[in-house]
Amino acid sequence: MIEPIPIGLKAYFWTVLLVIAAPLALIAVCAYFGTGSLLGGSARIPVLIAYAVTTVVGAWLLLDLRSNQIKVGEGGAIELRGGLFYKRAVARSEIDANSFRFHPPEPLPETSYRTNGVGLPGYFAGWFKAKDGARMFVVYGGGPALSFSTRDGVRHLIGAADPQRLKGALLGQASVLSASEVPAAR
Fold first, then answer.
1. Are 170 and 95 in contact (CB under 8 A)?
2. Distances from the Cα of 42 to the Cαs of 8, 39, 55, 106, in angstroms?
3. d(C-alpha 146, C-alpha 144), whole Å
């Protein structure tokens, strides 16, 4: 079964602002002061290409936010996906059942800095370091979260609409939410 991880509006807002609006404004300012025209004057083609590439990359990243999910396989294999770039497979037998902790929405608990991942206000995906130095795999898009550790010492922090139900599914005690049952994060 697959459970999508809810992403809040805050993550979308900051992605649009930092990945699309700010770069487009910077291109426009550089084009204007360099050529006297927002479209680049004599450098029109490179400026239009820069606008197009920025818009396409930003749209792609916005769509990428929606690909966060948890896949729970029949044999107890669990796959955590944070966008297209970050993935971690965990065997159910490797999860430390005593390590589960529930976290309220915001602020993101335990992380100190990103080692290989994406960190925007309201959205985190990839590898991070915990405040105590432990490695963490994080897939979080706002709302409540569930954290747990595996026997190899890696902590996992997952955003979930219903962390209690997700814990049961990860331990094989309950079914995972279907896509239609997952409410959007606010």
1. yes
2. 42, 9, 22, 48
3. 7
Going 22 to 24 to 30 to 36, the CA torsion angle's sign is negative
Q: Give the C-alpha separation, 21 to 44, whole Å.
A: 20
In whole angstroms, give the CA distance from residue 181 to residue 131.
34
How far, CA to CA in Å, does 31 sit from each of 18, 22, 53, 180?
19, 14, 15, 46
Q: Report how far Cα 60 is from the mean position of its chain's Cα atoms.
A: 14
Model pLDDT for residues 32-52, shown as the tens digit of each residue = 888 888 887 788 888 889 999
d(CA 167, CA 163) in angstroms, rounded, equals 6
List pLDDT tens digits, range 106-126.
666 677 778 888 888 888 889
9 in Cβ contact with 17 (< 8 Å): no
